[in-house]
Amino acid sequence: MHQPSLHLVAIMLLIPWPFSSVLLCAPVSVLVPGMRLTPDKTLTSDQGSFALGFFTPSNSTENAYVGIWFNDIPLSTVVWVANRDNPITDASSAVLSMTENSSLVLSETNGHHILWMAKTITGGNSSAKLLNNGNLVVLSSYGTMLWQSFENPSDTVLVGMPMRTTHKTHPPWRMISWKGPEDPSKGRFSVGNDLDTPLQSFVWNGSVPYFRAAVRNGYVSSNVGLQAVSPLMYLTIYMGTDGETYSTFGLSDGSSRIFYKVDYSGKTTIWRWNTSLTDWTLIAPWPAYRCNLYGYCGAYGYCDNTEAISTCKCLDGFDPSNKTEWVRGNFSHGCRRKEELQCGGEANFLT
Ligand SMILES: *[C@@H]1O[C@H](CO)[C@@H](O)[C@H](O)[C@H]1NC(C)=O
Ligand SMILES: *[C@@H]1O[C@H](CO)[C@@H](O)[C@H](O)[C@H]1NC(C)=O
Ligand SMILES: *[C@@H]1O[C@H](CO)[C@@H](O)[C@H](O)[C@H]1NC(C)=O
Ligand SMILES: *[C@@H]1O[C@H](CO)[C@@H](O)[C@H](O)[C@H]1NC(C)=O
Ligand SMILES: *[C@@H]1O[C@H](CO)[C@@H](O)[C@H](O)[C@H]1NC(C)=O
Ligand SMILES: *[C@@H]1O[C@H](CO)[C@@H](O)[C@H](O)[C@H]1NC(C)=O
Ligand SMILES: *[C@@H]1O[C@H](CO)[C@@H](O)[C@H](O)[C@H]1NC(C)=O
Prior knowledge:
It is a single chain. The protein is mainly beta. The chain has 3 domains: 1-152, Agglutinin, subunit A; 153-287, Agglutinin, subunit A (Orthogonal Prism); 292-337, no CATH class. It is built from 6 helices and 28 strands. The strands form 8 sheets. Strands 1-10-11-12 form a 4-stranded antiparallel beta sheet, with no helix packed on it. Strands 2-7-8-9 form a 4-stranded antiparallel beta sheet. A hairpin with a 5-residue loop joins strand 11 and strand 12. The longest helix is centred in the N-terminal third of the chain and has 13 residues, at 2-14. One 2-acetamido-2-deoxy-beta-D-glucopyranose (NAG) is lined by residues 124-125, 141. Residues 99, 101, 103, 105, 114, 122 line the site of one 2-acetamido-2-deoxy-beta-D-glucopyranose. It comes from Triticum aestivum (Wheat). Residues 1-21 form the signal peptide.
């Protein structure tokens, strides 16, 4: 186990370093050819917000993964996983490295068993760097971006991560849930945009739509749009240089400790780090998404997407079956015909 660390130090000496060697003990954010990241090591982004390394889900003793997590909070929160469907079974031999042919490769048993690879066009002298927004990038020696984790999402979207909503020249953008709370392998739920109406965002259960969000064409027609999702959070929609439409989200206070994910049960949630609670606080799940969940508005109810915030409404001639629950935002009771209520006797209303 000593050899890898000596190797690491030797390689670090080769990196152009703006300061004296005292800083060699500082966290490293870059992997260069020949450098090996072993399970006892992590890469840390330059300002310390994110780390990349090996992790083992808490209920697993054998399967390990390479992932990215928030580094500056005390709760383990994995936001990206490299080898989702190929867990490491022999951690003692697992290595993430930049190979001489410029591939970022995760392997075990002395490189004989390749578990995962960032697919890039061979460039020579490429390096991998963990950026402070949580994006792992592979850069050519000229600084060209060859690959990035932001374009290969797992189940989580971070601030500034582009979600492609059209697919003219790319395959459809998808993020895919974990299979279970402790199982990062690809689960049955995915999030992305519909192929026929690209501005219509869906969560799928396998290939079946599970719920859908409002069409956003009003924002895209003006090319750049800003939609307040909550007082804190905004969504930006823009046209990329490749002619595709993208959206990203951010917080109005500039904080990056927020994420949007689809969990193993198909729920999409947005979480924000709460410093005083030392925990994640759920900030509004996308309201439009919820409203469009099949059956969410109950019998004779529908999701009105023309409102600023989509909400359940009753069909004409119908009223909420249970007003108390409806006002609380529980629409599952649905609606019933107004006439039936009147038949029940007006006395009930007047008391
Ligand atoms: C982890 O294992 C324990 C004991 O088997 C079990 O009670 C718990 O539900 C598991 N947790 C998860 C998230 O699967
Ligand atoms: C780069 O090296 C890896 C591991 O040695 C190998 O699997 C892969 O095919 C190589 N890629 C290219 C483009 O040569
Ligand atoms: C990589 O960098 C080294 C040192 O700067 C140089 O000698 C070598 O030719 C480079 N290789 C490639 C493929 O660019
Ligand atoms: C997802 O689909 C499977 C298979 O059809 C079904 O058993 C499961 O209940 C669905 N999950 C949800 C949350 O609808
Ligand atoms: C933190 O949590 C507390 C208690 O739930 C809540 O009152 C407060 O608004 C939260 N702060 C943020 C920034 O989410
Ligand atoms: C409405 O729902 C609440 C809570 O489920 C229940 O206590 C109440 O009796 C219901 N009212 C009607 C009119 O069904
Ligand atoms: C909504 O009402 C139904 C029926 O009373 C109940 O089972 C369910 O737990 C309620 N949901 C919420 C979110 O309060």
